[in-house]
Amino acid sequence: MEIPYTVKPRPDTGLYNAKLGIWLFLASEVMLFGALFSAYILLRVGAAEGTWPKGLLNVPLGTINTLVLITSSITVVMAWVSLKMNQFGKFRVYQAITLLCALGFLGIKSYEYKDKFTHYQIVKSDGTYVDGHMVEKTADHVILDGIEAKQLSEINSPEHGKHPEHKHITVPTSEIKKIGNYGPAHNTYMAIYFTLTGLHALHVIGGALVIAFLWGPGAKMWKTEPERFTNRIEVSGLFWHFVDLVWIFLFPVLYLL
Amino acid sequence: MQHTNQDSHHQEHAHHEPGFWAKYIFSTDHKVIGIQYAITSLIFLFIGFSLIMAMRWQLAYPGKPIPIIGGLLQQALGDAAAGGVMSPDLYNAFGAMHGTIMVFLGIVPLAFAAFGNFVVPLQIGAVDMAFPRINMASYQSFVVGGVIMMVSFFIPGGAAQAGWTSYSPLATIIPTQGQTFWIIGMVFLITSSLLGAVNFIVTIIQMRAPGMNWMRMPFFVWAQFVTAFLLLLAFPPLEAAALMQLMDKVADTSFFLPTGLVISGQVLPISGGGSPLLWQHLFWFLGHPEVYVLILPAMGIVCEVITNNSRKPIWGYKSLVYSSLAIGFLSFIVWAHHMYLTGMGTKISTFFQTTTMIISIPSVIILTCFFISLWGGSIRFNTPMLFCLAFLPMFGIGGLTGLPLGFNYSDIFLHDTYYVIAHFHYIVAPGTIFALFAGIYYWYPKATGRHMSEFWGKVHFWLSLLCMNLIFQPMFVQGMAGLNRRLYDGGATYAGSGEGIIGIPQFFIDLNKMISHAAWLLAIVQIPFIINFFWSIRNGRKVASDNPWDATTLEWQTPTPPPHGNFIEVPNVYRGPYEYSVPGHKADFTPQNEPEPGTHKTAKPSPK
Amino acid sequence: MSDQHTHHDVSKHVRGYLIIFAALLVGTVLTVWASYIHFGAKDSNTWNIVVALIIASTKAFLVAGYFMHLISEKKLIYSILAFTGFFVVGLMYLTIWSMEPANIVHFK
Fold first, then answer.
1. How do residues C55-76 score in pLDDT, each as one tens digit?
2. Assembly ipTM
3. Do A35 and B1 make contact, defined as CB atoms within 8 angstroms?
């Protein structure tokens, strides 16, 4: 029993099965991320004055990650082109670069995550704030490397180009009303940041696993059914481009605006 | 499939004799997967029904130990059912899980996945689904989701308690982990639905047999096609919402928790800034299309059975097709009529009220087409037909009683009363479930090669019809008297003369007893069906031919039961799906793959 | 656009892909640069959002149109994506409309 149109397109639709399938799947992904972006807009519009942070994330790292993903996109296309031109060796090289890019992206992302989990904010008993990276924590005091502020808005939206000097600040435990890191529980901005980028990172991992499989054990199909294998590369590439596309929106929305 | 090469035939043959596990558990054959879905979801329907039967005891006889199963519940669930009495927490958990199981584990898998898997590839003349292995993964993901839901009953604190709608903040602040299980279970169920939906759409677009163009597809296939799109595009927002609720639950975020939320006099130590309305929007963005996911496949089944048993073509095939497409489209922009009481504002309520009224038009067109199709037919009153004939007025009642809920002003009074329960149960219980029963009786001979007993089928039908109406008709009365649907004691606390602002006359509360007895009777009259279903597999009357109902569609033009690969040779389709009683033809039905009389059998059909 | 291509055709496309790649790199730099400039009125960043979204949409169009071959894709795919786009916009717009404080009657 053969399933028709796994390799050749059906004449009246002009598509082979897997290509239609991946586009339908991507349509559902659009709805998934669309719903999360709606949540982002709502939370942002609904946030109280001065509580929505700006410039909290590391723009250079975000930019590098954008470039890394764009590079991986071009190598995915080139890998598919190489197969079309019957150059299997080149395909291997290009997809190897794609996989390295994926790893690089995830590496930078986890560094950024770690940075947020070591970044603390203290609300003191007198209502002022201390904000910075954890240096030392003992039973009777906490030392942060950062800034002091009277109001939250001074931390969340500093004036352009004027980032205050960081210094070591010691806060006795008795003066701490509330302390917490910049994890998802910090505020709705961090919550949506971790949810969106976390879900995106899961997509990167998923896509990389598929590409790795087709690069390694799955590549055997090239010998037996080259056309079908090329189709698989095209379909996995479509998914990869979509992941890139999501990041193209995530980057300005979370890092720059 | 015919093989000229002896060697490959041999291999194929060896491939066709897999062991038990490969054949029934890890099968990639769409028919086996369909049957797996059918049996699993029937079991879940039974579980969901059992939960409500226990709850109906509490409503009828508040605070009394549940007879028969009370002790069993205490043993299994501990303090939640101490002394065999249903505790409020258990009542909430059963209520939430009744809805979840019935919708996501019972009816959708049965209506969409089971019937769709078994029938759609056969009806379009395909060898299998487009992605057989994804199809298997879809079923396995469904089972995993179902198991997680079931396990949640037995964890400390029990299953989710915030209703099948899981409104935040309630769902988030309940300290037990039932809700976490619910969310994780839902993620698996959503994955299963997405894989299924992609598979169905690709199969219907790509795998139609030669000559099976769009307007020759049976209406059942159209209904499944639209349903698949609803699942594909409406479920992801719920998945997004579920992820955010999961974050709220395990990572202490505040997506759905507003600033300054006070629980038991204490301000919650959360960052706040979230929006409870956001959950409702994302939930109902799925929730309303889901209603049409429940009803469209049922309409598809009704269409097949009615045309077959009235022996005449369906009236208004094109109207049916376009109406179902219109329903599919509109169902995405009516969701907030579930939220009139949230204070969204009057302008937006008016918008959703308008779209809600518009979407009732295609539904009425579909129902009208079915009624007119009966006109002048020579009707055969067999079991599947009886269920479908009952579907029409039952769905009609359910639909028409929905109009007052769609209007802003009347909804303010009826919201959250038993009227709502009666309304949507008329649609899904004597509506959809009757259509599903019809489908089971109708396609059973194709799947097994034997008929189910007609006599016991009719017993099952008449008694079910009676019980369904005894259960849900009084609820309209209760609802209009203002009885709230979420009361643990069935309203006993609010009993009164009905003269003051609060106070429901005893009569309306006493109706609970009648309803509960009817519900238990409904359970008893399902016994003939269950026995009939399993007994007939080996002992039913054998089918006289491959086409025992004298039907026109392609699923009856295969061997019985259809082999792996379905058709002996790829069928050519020459005509529309419902050519019954065509003047000048020798039989009162003309199968889709039969060439025009007088032309040669090998004549090429039109290429499209 | 999978099968009708000969090797020669495909190699002609490579040049196009590299141009798109360069455009995406430029777009990334542009969007970062634009975020450091203030557009429009003094205490409103509306125009910054508009500019950033225009750049992002252009990049998205390049990726979807050329890397994913949407520009020469079949009609069927277009219609699926058109419906998806409509529903996403509907979800966003109606949800946000319903949450606008001006619409909430209680507080008036």
1. 999 999 999 999 999 999 999 9
2. 0.94
3. no
